[in-house]
Design a protein that fits this description.
The structure is a single chain. This protein is an all-alpha fold and 657 residues long. Among the domains are: 171 residues, no CATH class; 50 residues; 50 residues; 44 residues; 35 residues. 77% of the residues lie in helices and 0% in strands. Helix 3 crosses helix 5 and helix 5 runs antiparallel to helix 6.
Length: 657
């Protein structure tokens, strides 16, 4: 049995399997159909391997994922199913295969990959620590220990030799092959023989060419220079001639000297202008008007007229109301004010009482809120106690449920383990049942297809008959012309139904009615316009009357002002007023004189004070001089005394000696 091909076929089938789209059993059946050409033993080996890898995918993924995370970082994801197959065979079929067949399977694969995977999978620490823990999360710990961990540890010592063999093979394959060194043998150089040098060709003697003669134009002056000089001379002569003519024929067209007539006219015009000037005359404009009347008419629009008319009407009504109240005898407001004061005091008392009530109500509501809060806290505490009791009861129920589930899980694991033992017989039986079901389904489907075909045939014949009838109806000719009578109705049997002639008549009547209404509206608008114009004229009359009254009032006020001014002038010309003015002037002059005398006195006092200061300073200087003289004299006397004392002391000492 070529295990290399079998393993490759199993890996290929695993790559083709899609768990989200295919069922395991159907996939195994389909794959078994592809393996018909192989012997039965090979078919069973491949199908069992593929089925076991798919069923135990979660169990195998734990090892494969950890291997890729730790040591298989540089391996391709395409090699994943290869490691899955090897791990499945090591876990479930190592005892059935034996070490020899297992080693042949491993040797048929890549040695470096198998070395790394087997050294990782059959590591004692990995098997006893995290692999055991991860598998125990899926199955019972005792079952995992008894079913997988112990057999793998038992085979670990024997697999160790296979791992060492793979290690040697990988190390040998990685070392470069050493080839024997060949000694170099010297050989002669294959050199080409040199050709003899040819003789050099003789050099040619250079010959000098004959030079061309110098042209005659080289030493001759150019013609253009003579031409330019000639033109320049002609232009100079022409300019001198023009200058002479201009100087001799100066101001022939206009004479700058003025004639006597023009001079006389100009002097006369100047005198007339000077006569009109009046520098010494006294010009005074009249006194400005105190009130300038604007004689320009003001054009008012409709809104302004109505506004001003309403204003004057309001003033008139207010004046009439005031007069009526006076005629009726209006009462004094003292009683009303007293009543108003009493009512204000009463309202204030009520407001204060209401404020006091609100304050007390606020305090009461605050107390009630505190009591309600205490009640809510007590209720929450009671609810919390009940909640704790409920949670404790739920936890007890959950613990009991968890124990039951664990017990059921153990039983299920045991059942699954027992089921794996009888899997082959169950598979054969399942295949027979499925074959029987397929036969029944195929017979039923054939019967259903036959019935559907008969129904489709009947439906098609019915449609053909219907189409034939429609075509026969369409082939019958029908009249398309229709006569119209204006007086006939549509025949819909409605109350509002009418003929075309009646409709036209009604439309004509409606148009006439609209025209009459339009004429009425026009007439009404004209009447409103005329009434409005009449109202405007009345308003303008009232406005002009009011304005004239206001103008008369202003003129009266101006007359009163003028009278007051005249009275003031008359008062100013009165003798008493004049006498009083004179006395006032005398008093003012007297006050002015007193001010002047006071100023003179103050100046004299200042001068006297300055003179006193000068005399005082002079006296002070004299006294200071005297004082200094006295001090100097006293100092001289003291010096003389000390000198006399020294002399006397010296004499006494000399005598004593």
């Amino acid at each position: 049995m070529n295990y290399k091909e079998l393993i490759r076929e199993a890996i290929k089938l695993l790559d083709m399997y899609e768990p989200h789209k295919q069922c395991v059993d159907t996939f195994i059946e389909d794959s078994a159909k592809t393996l018909v050409n192989r012997p039965s033993a090979e078919q069973i080996f491949i199908t069992d391997t593929v089925y076991g890898c798919i069923v135990h995918q979660k169990l195998l993924d734990i090892v494969i994922n950890a291997f890729y995370d730790q040591k298989g970082k540089y391996f391709l994801k395409a090699d994943r199913n290869q490691f899955v197959v090897v791990s499945y065979l090591a876990m479930f079929h190592l005892e059935d295969l034996g070490l020899e067949q297992f080693s042949t399977i491993i040797k048929s694969m890549d040695s470096s990959k198998m070395y790394k995977f087997l050294s990782f999978f059959f590591n004692v620490t990995n098997l006893t620590t995290w692999i055991h823990g991860e598998w125990s999360q899926l199955y019972d710990a005792t079952y995992v220990e008894r079913k997988w961990i112990e057999p793998l540890l038992r085979w670990q010592t024997e697999v160790e030799g296979l791992v060492e063999y793979l290690e040697k093979k990988t190390t040998k394959g990685s070392q470069p092959k050493k080839f024997p060194k060949k000694s170099t043998e010297p050989q002669e150089f294959d050199l080409t023989k040199p050709k003899p040098r040819p003789l050099p060709a003789p050099e040619l003697i250079p010959q000098q060419e004959k030079p061309k003669p110098v042209p005659a134009s080289t030493h001759r002056a150019p013609k253009e220079q003579w031409v330019l000089e000639d033109i320049k001379q002609k232009n100079h002569l022409k300019a001198q001639k023009v200058l002479y003519e201009a100087n001799t024929q100066q101001f022939r067209c206009a004479n700058p000297q003025k004639s006597e007539k023009t001079k006389n006219i100009m002097s006369q015009i100047q005198q007339n202008r000077e006569a009109k000037l009046k520098f010494d005359s006294i010009y005074s404009s009249g006194t400005p008007a105190t009130h300038k009347t604007n004689s320009l008419p003001i054009r008012l629009n409709t809104a302004a007229i109505f506004r001003e008319g309403a204003f004057y009407n309001r003033q008139r009504e207010e004046e009439l109301n005031r007069l009526e109240r006076l005629m009726q005898g209006a009462s004094e407001p003292s009683a009303f004010l007293q009543w108003q004061k009493e009512m204000k005091e009463k309202d204030l008392q009520e407001e204060l009482a209401q404020l006091e009530r609100r304050r007390l109500e606020g305090k009461i509501s605050h107390e009630e809120a505190l009591l309600a809060r205490q009640r809510v806290l007590e209720l929450n505490q009671h609810k919390a106690v009940l909640k704790k009791e409920e949670t404790a009861q739920l936890m007890r129920r959950y613990a009991e449920k968890r124990l039951r589930e664990e017990k059921e899980m153990k039983e299920l694991v045991q059942m699954v383990a027992d089921g794996h033992k009888n899997s082959k017989a169950a598979k054969v039986k399942l295949q027979e049942i499925k074959k029987h079901i397929v036969k029944e389904v195929s017979e039923q489907s054939q019967e259903l297809l036959r019935q559907a075909l008969e129904e489709a045939q009947a439906e098609l014949s019915r449609k053909f008959e219907l189409i034939r009838q429609i075509r026969a109806i369409e082939s019958v000719p029908h009249l398309s012309h229709k006569f119209l009578d204006d007086t006939e109705t549509g025949g819909h049997e409605l109350l509002c139904e009418m003929s075309l002639a009646e409709l036209r008549e009604r439309l004509a009547r409606l148009k006439e009615q609209e025209q009459r209404e339009q004429e009425k509206r026009r007439q009404r608008i004209l009447e409103e316009k005329q009434s409005r114009e009449q109202q405007l004229l009345e308003q303008l009359d009232t406005i002009t009357a009011c304005r004239t009254a206001a103008g008369l009032a202003t003129t009266q006020k101006q007359d009163e002002k003028k009278m007051r001014l005249k009275l003031k002038e008359a008062v100013s010309t009165d003798e008493r007023v004049v006498a009083l003015q004179k006395t006032l002037e005398m008093k003012q002059q007297e006050r002015q004189k007193r001010k002047e005398t006071e100023k003179a006195k103050s100046k004299l006092n200042e001068q006297m004070a300055a003179q006193n200061v000068k005399t005082y300073s002079h006296k002070k200087q004299v006294l200071e001089k005297q004082h200094w003289l006295q001090l100097e004299q006293a100092l001289e006397k003291q010096v003389q005394r000390e000198a006399s004392r020294r002399n006397t002391s010296g004499l006494i000492q000399g005598i004593a000696i």
